[in-house]
Write a structure and sequence with these properties.
The chain is α/β, with parallel strands linked by helices and 392 residues long. It contains twelve helices and 17 strands. The two termini are 37 Å apart.
Length: 392
């Protein structure tokens, strides 16, 4: 089908919940995509950080095919090999004790919230279930994770919400202490606030929060749905902040393009959830787990070091443009935020797309770049060349 035909069917049969870009993507290779009309694009989005190994990765595709021909799904009523293989790779690399597998980032955060509240209830009884999150955070689109999200505009039209969340300003211990209380069971935060504008937290602040959690026996809950699985140049971003969470959520890049997510717990929390306390029909799906094993095998120390180098190269390349439209550059690894001034960030995104570069927006004034972790030097240079053409 051509673009007009696809768009017409979408309008007729699909709920109009997305402000889609006016192109239809047909296929890709590496970090390059082609639309249905044959136009080529350098991809700085990777499906919002999902396609960690890019497109048409042969090892990834073969692992999925081989597993599909063997066993596509059986449910968690039975043991299977792929999910335990993935767990044995992921858990030690994260320095955690155990993992729960689900399908998405919102589901992962829901599980993290449930675990934190049950831990506190088991230890202290009722009345200690509040979780502090940060203003400008984003934790998902279910009713509970929307409430956990510290952005008022996401809360409009969906009341009533579950209780049990309060919000503090990022990088401000006084703000956090002002909303603390005897009813708190944990603090939940992103190391880099992705949807909020690609805003990294200060290392000293993160360590101070971790220390406070230890002192008060609150759980340190880290949302790594967007920052995890190599995106920032380490398996998880918290590994660059000198802290160890009690629970950490993940999703997006773990299966390289298939729906997958979950959360990891430390030893203190590994037995909080017992049989029947939590579950997921599709969690640990054999095909997605097989894909996840390929991703984990790819994320060697040398590969992760290259992710850091690629991120530095792109940030320096954008700085070298000396563009009047750039107000600042921030981020870690291949999670880059470019502050935009002089035009709307959505306008800049559309101008880049017209010239063959796909980018994302975040917050009110930020261009967000999340290229596939396997992006080549040639693809980075081509993307920078397009940015220079549009932004100079």
């Amino acid at each position: 089908m051509n673009f007009a035909e696809i768009k017409a069917l979408d309008a007729q049969y699909v709920l109009q919940t997305y402000g889609r870009n006016q192109i239809a993507i047909d296929h890709g290779k590496g970090a390059t995509l082609w639309d249905t009309e044959g136009k080529e694009y350098v991809d700085f989005t990777s499906g919002i950080g999902v396609c960690s190994l890019g497109y048409a990765n042969e090892k990834w595709a073969k692992a999925i095919y081989d597993q599909a021909m063997k066993l596509g799904h059986i449910s968690n009523l039975f043991y299977t090999e792929p999910y335990v293989r993935l767990a044995s790779k992921l858990v030690p690399a994260a320095g955690m004790a155990a993992v729960f597998f689900g399908n998405s980032g919102a589901e992962a955060n829901e599980g993290m919230i449930k675990t934190a509240r049950k831990y506190s209830h088991d230890k202290y009884g009722q009345g200690r279930s509040t979780i502090i999150t940060l203003n400008h955070s984003f934790h998902g689109r279910t009713i509970t994770t929307l409430k956990a999200t510290g952005q008022d505009h996401y809360h409009e039209n969906f009341y009533p919400f579950p209780e049990g969340f309060r919000y503090a300003d990022a990088n401000d211990m006084d703000s956090l202490l002002s909303v603390a209380g005897d009813d708190v069971c944990g603090v939940m935060m992103e190391m880099i606030q992705g949807e909020g504008g690609v805003n990294p937290l200060n290392k000293d602040y993160v360590q101070a929060v971790a220390k406070l959690c230890q002192e008060r026996n609150w759980l340190l809950l880290i949302d790594e749905v967007q920052t995890g699985i190599g995106r920032t140049g380490t398996l998880f971003a918290y590994q660059q902040f000198g802290v160890q969470p009690d629970i950490v959520s993940f999703a997006k890049g773990i299966a390289g393009g298939l729906p997958f997510g979950g959360f990891l717990t430390n030893e203190k929390c590994r037995r909080v959830l017992g049989a029947g306390d939590h579950g997921s029909t599709f969690g640990g799906n054999p095909m997605a787990s097989a894909a996840g094993c390929v991703v984990m095998d790819t994320l060697t120390p040398d590969f992760l070091q290259e992710v850091q180098k690629k991120g530095e190269y792109l940030r320096k390349g954008i700085e070298a443009l000396h563009s009047p439209y750039v107000s600042g550059i921030r981020g870690m690894g291949l999670m880059i935020g470019v502050g935009v001034q002089g035009m709307k960030h959505s306008e800049l995104r559309d101008k880049l797309m017209a010239e063959g570069l796909l980018a994302l927006t975040a917050g009110s004034d930020t261009l967000r770049l999340l290229p596939p972790l396997v992006i080549s030097q040639e693809e980075m240079d081509k993307g920078l060349s397009i940015m220079a053409k549009v932004m100079k």
